[in-house]
Amino acid sequence: SDGKGDAGGGGKPLVGVDYPRSDTDFWNAYIKYVPPSARELGVELKTTNSQNDIAALISNIQTFISQNVKGVVMAPQDTAAIAPSLQQLADRKIPVVTIDTRPDTGNVFMVVRADNRAYGTKACQFLGTKLGGKGKVIMFQGGLDSINGRDRTESFNECMKQNYPGITVFGEATEWKGDLAASKFQTRLASDPDIKGVYMQSSFALAGTLQVLKQRNLQFPPSDPRHVFVVSNDGIPEELKDIKEGLIDATVSQPADQFATYGLYYVKAAIDGKTFAPGPTDHGSTIVQVRDGLLEDQLAAPLVTADGATVAGQPTVRYDDKALWGNAS
Amino acid sequence: MSDTLVSTGAPAPTDRPTARRRMPALARLRDLVLVPAIVVIAVVGQLVNPVFLQSDNLINILQSMSAIAILVLAETLVLVTGKMDLSLESTFGLAPGVAAWLVVDPAITHGLGVDLLAGAWGVPVTLLVGALVGAFNGLLIVRYGLNGFIVTLGMLIVLRGLLTGISGGSTFFGLPPSMSYLGSASWVGVPVSIWLCLVAFAVAVVVLGFTAGGRALYAIGGNVDAARAAGIRTDRILFLTLVTASVLAALAGLIQAGRLASIPSGQGDGAIFQVFAAAVIGGVSLNGGKGSMVGAFTGVLLLFMIVNVLTLAGVPAQWTNFLNGAVILVALVLSRITGGKAQE
Amino acid sequence: MSDTLVSTGAPAPTDRPTARRRMPALARLRDLVLVPAIVVIAVVGQLVNPVFLQSDNLINILQSMSAIAILVLAETLVLVTGKMDLSLESTFGLAPGVAAWLVVDPAITHGLGVDLLAGAWGVPVTLLVGALVGAFNGLLIVRYGLNGFIVTLGMLIVLRGLLTGISGGSTFFGLPPSMSYLGSASWVGVPVSIWLCLVAFAVAVVVLGFTAGGRALYAIGGNVDAARAAGIRTDRILFLTLVTASVLAALAGLIQAGRLASIPSGQGDGAIFQVFAAAVIGGVSLNGGKGSMVGAFTGVLLLFMIVNVLTLAGVPAQWTNFLNGAVILVALVLSRITGGKAQE
Amino acid sequence: MTDSAARPDDGRTDHGPPVVEAVDITKRYGSTLALDSAGIMIRPGETHALVGRNGAGKSTLVGILTGLQEPDGGRVAFDGHPAPPLADRDAWRRRVACVYQKSTVIPTLSVAENLFLNRHARGRDRLIRWRTVRREAERLLREWSVDADVDQPAGTLTVEERQFVEIARALSFGARFIILDEPTAQLDAGGIGRLFARIRDLQQQGVTFLFISHHLQEIYEICDTVTVFRDARHIRTAAVADVTPAELVAAMTGEEAGAGPSTDRPAPAGDAPELLTVDGLVTAAGAEASFRVRAGEVVGLAGGGGSGKVDVAETIVGLRRPWAGAVRLAGRVLRPGSVRDALDAGIGLVPQDRHRQGLVPMLSVAENITMTVPGKLRRRGFVAPARRDAFAGRSIADLGIKTTGPGQPVSGLSGGNQQKVVMGRALASDPKLLVLITPTAGVDVRSKQNLLAVVDRVSAAGTGVLIVSDELDDLRGCDRVLVMFAGRVVREMSRGWRDADLVAAMEGVQAEHV
Ligand SMILES: Nc1ncnc2c1ncn2[C@@H]1O[C@H](COP(=O)(O)OP(=O)(O)OP(=O)(O)O)[C@@H](O)[C@H]1O
Ligand SMILES: Nc1ncnc2c1ncn2[C@@H]1O[C@H](COP(=O)(O)OP(=O)(O)OP(=O)(O)O)[C@@H](O)[C@H]1O
Ligand SMILES: [Mg+2]
Ligand SMILES: [Mg+2]
């Protein structure tokens, strides 16, 4: 946005950023971080919003091409459908960085994402440990049509089956809707009042879940044996606050700020002609080659807990850690 | 006086009158046409999982449907007058959303909201926003004679966009107690939202059945010119109906907000399909002039019972939507067939 | 003068005819009522960003609208007969989805699909599924006289659920070349989908304007009893219209699938609102009997131009929906006002 | 008894200010001038007739006098005081009650509620007392000898019963001024008799009426004063006793009353081939008929309300599926329940209700006329608009349809002209047999004559005609009239029948008794 000064000159490269949607807390945080990152890195921005519609994304890419952008950052929520567009961009030698998702086919300069399968596994390990390997757990799946949701579901289920066979998992499809999650939770509590753990795949179900627990008098401090363990996902400020208050126990902090920063960082690097190789990075993550010619910077997505203690051999981060983007003002 | 002529007049064919006379009883029964379906679902539910008929689960069903039920009530009012209001689903999210925006403190909610008003203003502001949306709809539809479907389709998109705009797409948390009371408190062990929903329907039954205003809705929906000729102030009543419906939608949104203790910017997204399905299954005609509150209530109840049973049955996630849809389709078709006349 | 009723070719009273004679010309002009709006948007677009009028961008607009435009064409056919088909948005995803399910090889696509048929079957199966959906709608609506809004609302839910069911919610990719050809190939530098869309509209203009079948649609939509009494086989034509519309929706879905080289399980989700908005802005009446293909085309074009301009203008993400909706609402209202009679 | 001069109305007029006076009323609908500085003055106690051809502006005036429409210019006064504002519906309803031409029955509501719409009996808690409403409704219907359940939806009533609901409602207000806009158009002789008896009752009590009808004999039967409108203007007002029917028609049409269609049309040749054969037809509703129509023959099918005549006719043309029996046209057996087949075989149809079955209002005159004959307009498979307009132009000229051109939407035509379009549609296929169901309902005198003249013309050219009607004027030109009663053909009358005989037969009275 603030690309004035020497606009049109060769100074700041023009980069097109497509926002995947603007109706969830997480992606809004991302949207908020993009312009400042661009200022910092010295790139000029063209932004579009594809409203979770892959057809709109493709059209937006066309407008980027029309406007002669030098690089594109996007977060395709559908990883199969962008192959034709990637081909077009490749033909015009426009480098692409994808955020959050990895295209099924076609190559990009860099994939910046956190491992969604790791989210599910982390949540599973946390709940498995806290429940001592037995009991009942409910999982609020996102939309079935979301690749990230499916990754989280599958890894959570696999981890449970492997490591905690004594835990029963009720998976409920919720279409990312809080009210649906709340009523399914209530229904499940009616049939299985002894549910001891909740895994929600995103913060969409946060408030409704807490409300149901409160209404059914199931809200006890974590020290109480009657406590129901709740693991959320996203790392928005509200979750951190709830951890502090003992209402939920953990969340995965998706690095919204780093998504913005490093998406632009890599695209600028590509424009400047830099290249990267697999290996650790300077910002605490690792670049891996996921398939021939496709590099992925797997940013750390830490599990946030009240005490920051190690869970199942994995380090966690305390809720008030200043490094968490949810604690930035 | 006229009897001399009557004697020579043709006596109507013998069997027609009796055939016709059976109609009204049927018409009253039509309100209850879904009861067998509800019983069937209840039996299936109980077989699937003995939890089904426990009071806990029944309260759960009623509570989860209460907000949508009030939305259905609102839409039924509009449908009876022969109009449609698609924008109710957006008002459902926007009205409490605007109130939250005005009252929540950005300091607590990381920059969201403007904290212009005290928390106690939450409820009145919600209802006021509902009234304003309804009045705007009414202005375009009644005053300027624009097609209701079109206007409210446009409003649906605009109002949803407005909520995304003011919320920046984020969820409003930290609602003041006044705003979450209706959706979260309980009276004598039963959630307030259930009481509210039942009272709203009871009032609606009386208003629609036994007041001049209520009957006027049916008259307008049946034949607006005739209603005007009979001295009914059709424009005023249509306007008031649209405003009332929007206020009810705002109230429903408040209940939902209280239940979830938050207002996501997508609140109500897609709900209008469910609302129409419930109303229509319940026997409300899309052409106006026909439909009862009892029917509408059974319609929502049936839909939510189906979802509940599917959840209890643990149907594979990818097939729930299909099964849910299939049951709805069958119910829609059956309700139209048993409801007597096919085309309406 | 006015009394010479029998006399041949009696010219009617003096001043009325001239006033009235302007009507038909006006009626034809009504098809072009959106042209000024389109020009305004084009000018605004050019001012906002000089890229707007470049052929590159214009082709982009046409290409991104081509699938939806064919959906609008299909809905317009149905609307002209006085019915509604909400389920088109689901057929749009389901038809190519089923075809993909049958042809894609699970070995390539992580276990998705059943690989029952060879890739070449993709297109015929897509169209066949469209035809079957249309026939089922037709059976319920025409044969059993059920309300079209209700039936297709139910079908919308069921068909969407069916696609989620067979795909498990995932995206089908690895489509055979035959299925992606229409959406991805180009002829003389212009994407095939644009050609297809333009040809489809041209054919529709001719069919609706200059064939007995096409005129019958207007007669049925204008007054179905009169059409029947005039010997028009109303049931058969309604049935065929519903089938044609669904086949067109399947075709549109195929174009979309080719463009995306894949079929997300949510393909078409929510598209029906956009389709209705486009048709109505373009002057198609929801009450049947009125509307032209030219109008419908300008309606879609306008909507997609608006989105394009908003994109080029770089409107803040959370306000795009609102602005888009506001422009649609204004367009809807204006198109009704300039379209002459208010209530329709 | 139609001699109004014998009635004691001399003392009833000229007392006090007029009940209603409308002066200089102008009303425009788009480009149509419906009323052009027209006016009317109605004195207390009189029964004032308003006549004029279709589209003269009568119903428009009614709308203005009852406060449903706002005039563009002019003023209305009741009892010398200016009319209340439009929004104050109650004030209007205190001054005037009305039976509108367009049905104001609400089909989805019960009969009882229709009768007491917006004036339900209410208790002290302001809630409606349905039991009282129902009882009152039953009483009201009994008064009018309507045998219908007050709980049934009004939509299930027959046309006639509905009309009585309208009349009963309007007359039960206790209003001192009542407007009746073509109340008799939907009634048979018995019904009209009951209505007139009641009107006479109320006349005795000093109630004032404005009465609109296309049946001039009714004017002479119950009215004192008559006002004529023509082309949106007031033409003349006179005491009924002072004008002859011919003068009235002349005032309505603006020309000297010509002779009606000649009734001495030559009878069809005795050896004319048999065209229509109806054998043992039983309709779905149970009416039965067997008869024949020869080429060039004009046959009437008469009967009172509910006699089944329309049912039989609609079954013959394929609008309804028969229960049993066969229909043959020139030897070809018609497919039961198929209008298309009937048309292909050579039947032309004017359906009973032009608004419901006859016209597609939004489409042009040309499209409506040519709707039955798409095959005739085709050029290389496509409809050629030029050919269509030329075809329609011929019909417009032949039938004298008053229109701005073939492209005008039929919704813009007056009622009589719309009916001519329906006739044009029936004739478009050059039918062998023309079936006309109540072809002149709601059509003014002159248009009626013109339509019947068309019948004479086509029958002279060898077309068989079946006229289904209960109007004597329609039937007068027939070679034979079959009379139906209670679902059976009870009599056949050949040309030269006496009116009284036909009426008696239609009412189910044996001819011997008359
Ligand atoms: N609502 C309306 N919109 C447009 N034109 C109208 C409307 N109502 C009446 N007209 C036109 O006004 C003129 C007068 O109509 P009106 O109904 O008053 O005639 P009428 O004398 O009652 O005829 P009829 O004997 O057929 O009932 C006609 O040309 C008619 O087409
Ligand atoms: N039992 C019935 N069920 C359904 N419809 C009926 C029945 N009887 C008659 N009708 C329909 O009602 C309409 C009028 O009835 P019918 O033909 O018996 O009377 P009619 O002789 O035409 O008298 P009118 O002069 O009142 O029209 C027709 O369309 C007829 O088919
Ligand atoms: Mg009239
Ligand atoms: Mg009849």
TrEMBL record, chains B, C:
<dbReference type="InterPro" id="IPR001851">
    <property type="entry name" value="ABC_transp_permease"/>
</dbReference>
<feature type="transmembrane region" description="Helical">
    <location>
        <begin position="270"/>
        <end position="287"/>
    </location>
</feature>
<keyword id="KW-0812">Transmembrane</keyword>
<dbReference type="GO" id="GO:0022857">
    <property type="term" value="F:transmembrane transporter activity"/>
</dbReference>
<keyword id="KW-1003">Cell membrane</keyword>
<feature type="transmembrane region" description="Helical">
    <location>
        <begin position="294"/>
        <end position="315"/>
    </location>
</feature>
<keyword id="KW-1133">Transmembrane helix</keyword>
<feature type="transmembrane region" description="Helical">
    <location>
        <begin position="193"/>
        <end position="217"/>
    </location>
</feature>
<dbReference type="Pfam" id="PF02653">
    <property type="entry name" value="BPD_transp_2"/>
</dbReference>
<feature type="transmembrane region" description="Helical">
    <location>
        <begin position="58"/>
        <end position="80"/>
    </location>
</feature>
<protein>
    <submittedName>
        <fullName>Monosaccharide ABC transporter membrane protein, CUT2 family (TC 3.A.1.2.-)</fullName>
    </submittedName>
</protein>
<feature type="transmembrane region" description="Helical">
    <location>
        <begin position="321"/>
        <end position="339"/>
    </location>
</feature>
<dbReference type="GO" id="GO:0005886">
    <property type="term" value="C:plasma membrane"/>
</dbReference>
<feature type="transmembrane region" description="Helical">
    <location>
        <begin position="118"/>
        <end position="142"/>
    </location>
</feature>
<feature type="transmembrane region" description="Helical">
    <location>
        <begin position="32"/>
        <end position="52"/>
    </location>
</feature>
<keyword id="KW-0472">Membrane</keyword>
<feature type="transmembrane region" description="Helical">
    <location>
        <begin position="149"/>
        <end position="173"/>
    </location>
</feature>
<feature type="transmembrane region" description="Helical">
    <location>
        <begin position="92"/>
        <end position="112"/>
    </location>
</feature>
<feature type="transmembrane region" description="Helical">
    <location>
        <begin position="237"/>
        <end position="258"/>
    </location>
</feature>
TrEMBL record, chain D:
<dbReference type="InterPro" id="IPR003593">
    <property type="entry name" value="AAA+_ATPase"/>
</dbReference>
<keyword id="KW-0067">ATP-binding</keyword>
<dbReference type="GO" id="GO:0016887">
    <property type="term" value="F:ATP hydrolysis activity"/>
</dbReference>
<keyword id="KW-0813">Transport</keyword>
<keyword id="KW-0677">Repeat</keyword>
<protein>
    <submittedName>
        <fullName>Monosaccharide ABC transporter ATP-binding protein, CUT2 family</fullName>
    </submittedName>
</protein>
<dbReference type="InterPro" id="IPR027417">
    <property type="entry name" value="P-loop_NTPase"/>
</dbReference>
<dbReference type="InterPro" id="IPR050107">
    <property type="entry name" value="ABC_carbohydrate_import_ATPase"/>
</dbReference>
<feature type="domain" description="ABC transporter">
    <location>
        <begin position="270"/>
        <end position="511"/>
    </location>
</feature>
<keyword id="KW-0547">Nucleotide-binding</keyword>
<feature type="domain" description="ABC transporter">
    <location>
        <begin position="20"/>
        <end position="256"/>
    </location>
</feature>
<dbReference type="InterPro" id="IPR017871">
    <property type="entry name" value="ABC_transporter-like_CS"/>
</dbReference>
<dbReference type="InterPro" id="IPR003439">
    <property type="entry name" value="ABC_transporter-like_ATP-bd"/>
</dbReference>
<dbReference type="Pfam" id="PF00005">
    <property type="entry name" value="ABC_tran"/>
</dbReference>
<dbReference type="GO" id="GO:0005524">
    <property type="term" value="F:ATP binding"/>
</dbReference>
